[in-house]
Amino acid sequence: MKPQHLAWLAALATPALTLAQGSTTLYGIADAGVRHTAGMTAANAPGTASATSLASGVNNTSRFGFRSREELGGGLYALFNFETGLNIDSGSTANAKFFDRAAIVGLGGAWGQVTAGRQTNLLADAVSPVDAAGMRFASFNPNIATAALSSHGLGVEYGTAGSSSGSYRLDNAVKYTGRFGPVTARAMYSFGENAGNTSAQSSAGAGLAYAAGDWTVSGAVQRFKTAGNLSLQAFTLGAAYQLGSVRLAANTARSEADTSTTARTEQRVQSAGATWSVTGAVDLTAAVYRLDRQRTGKREDGYTRALLFAEYKLSRRTKLYAELDRTQWRDGFQGAANRDRATGITTGVLHTF
Predict the structure, then answer these.
(1) CA–CA dist 82, 66 (Å, integer)
(2) Which residues on adjacent β-strands are paired with residue 148?
(3) CATH architecture of structural domain 25-352
(4) 3-state secondary structure the chain
(5) Could you tell me the residue ranges of all domains in the chain?
(6) How far apart are CA 141 and CA 143, in angstroms?
(7) Gap between the Cα atoms of 9 and 17, Å rounded
C-alpha cells in the first residue's frame, strides 16, 4: 500500500477505534473463493481453455470503509462515507482511486438527504433492490455490469467516471434522496468541470421507488455525456415480491450510447430470478440474464447467463457459499476464436465486519 494511503488510514482509524469522540464506524466485507472456469479466463472473459484461480468478491464485493452520522438537533444530521474496493486475492485496491466506491459528505433531515462527492449513479440505486441475484457477483452480473454501467464495454468515458470502461460511480456528483412513506425519490447531477464547456462530461438523472408490504418497484433514468458531448441515455425498471420464504425479482434495462459521431451501441438486459430461504441458515438463489447488443453496421449479438448460489450462514457475519454459472454466447459475441459457451464453479467464504 502506498505511503499516502497509510496516512489516510491512520487519520481515519483513530476516531473509529477510540469511539469516545464520535460515532465513526469501520466496516467492510472480505470475500474469497476458489473458482474454476471452462471457456473463460480467470478474469471471466471469453476464452478457449480452462482456468483455476483464487477469486475475490464472487458473492459480494470485498471492501472496507469509514462512515459517520452526527445528530445536529432539530431533526438535522450530518454524515460522511469513505469506501474502497479490495482484491482479497492480492491485497491490492480494486481501482487506481483509493476511495473508489464512495467519498461523500452530506446533510439530511425530514425533508430528505443531500450528499456530495463520488457516489453511485441512479441506475445502480434503482437496480439494487430488484436484482435477480441480489447484487451478487458484481463483476459478472449483467444488471450491475451493463444495466447499471459498471462495465459497459464501450471504451468511452461517460460522465466523470474516471474510467472508459464503466460509469457506475461518478465524481463531482450531488444527489438528493427523499423518503416519503413507501415512496423514495432520487435526483442526481454530476458536474463535468470541463473548462469552457459546462455540459461536457456532465450527468443528470431521476429515480423513483415504491416499497410497501411484500412489493418493491424501482426505476431510474439517467443521461451521461463525454468530454466531446457524445451522449449515453439509460433507464432501468424492476420489481420484487416476497412470497412467503421466496423472493421473486425481475428487471428490464436499456442503454443507447453514441460511441462516435457516426456509431451507436444499444444494449438491453432482461433478468428474472428467485431466492428461497430454505431455513434460517440456508438460502438458495437462481437467476437468469439475457443481454442483447446492437451496434452500428454490425449484426445483433449477446449472451444468456444463468447463476446459482447456495449460502450457509455460520453466524450473523460469516457464511459459506457455492456458486455455479453458465454463459451461452450468441452470434459471435465472444469473438471468433473462443468457445460459444462457458461454465464456472466457485466455493468460498464471506465475512462482514
Answers:
(1) 5
(2) none
(3) Beta Barrel (2.40)
(4) CCHHHHHHHHHHHHHHHHCCCCCCEEEEEEEEEEEEEEEECCCCCEEEEEEEEEEECCCCCCEEEEEEEEEEECCEEEEEEEEEEEECCCCEECCCCCCCCEEEEEEEECCEEEEEEEEECHHHHHHHHHCCCCCCCCCCCHHHHHHCCCCCCCCCCCCCCCCCCCCCEEEEEEEEEEEECCEEEEEEEECCCECCECCCCCEEEEEEEEEECCEEEEEEEEEEECCCCCEEEEEEEEEEEEECCEEEEEEEEEEEEECCCCCEEEEEEEEEEEEEECCCCEEEEEEEEEEEEEECCCCCEEEEEEEEEEEEECCCCEEEEEEEEEEEEECCCCCCCCCCEEEEEEEEEEEEC
(5) 25-352
(6) 6
(7) 11
* Cβ atoms of 200 and 226 closer than 8 Å: yes
Give me the tens of pLDDT residue by residue for the chain, a chain 353 residues long: 454 454 444 444 444 443 334 589 999 999 999 999 999 999 999 999 999 999 999 999 999 999 999 999 999 999 999 999 999 999 999 988 999 999 999 999 999 999 999 999 999 999 999 999 999 999 999 999 999 999 999 999 999 999 999 999 999 999 999 999 999 999 999 999 999 898 999 999 999 999 999 999 999 999 999 999 999 999 999 999 999 999 999 999 999 999 999 999 999 999 999 999 999 999 999 999 999 999 999 999 999 999 999 999 999 999 999 999 999 999 999 999 999 999 999 999 999 99
Name the grid cell of 341: 459457451
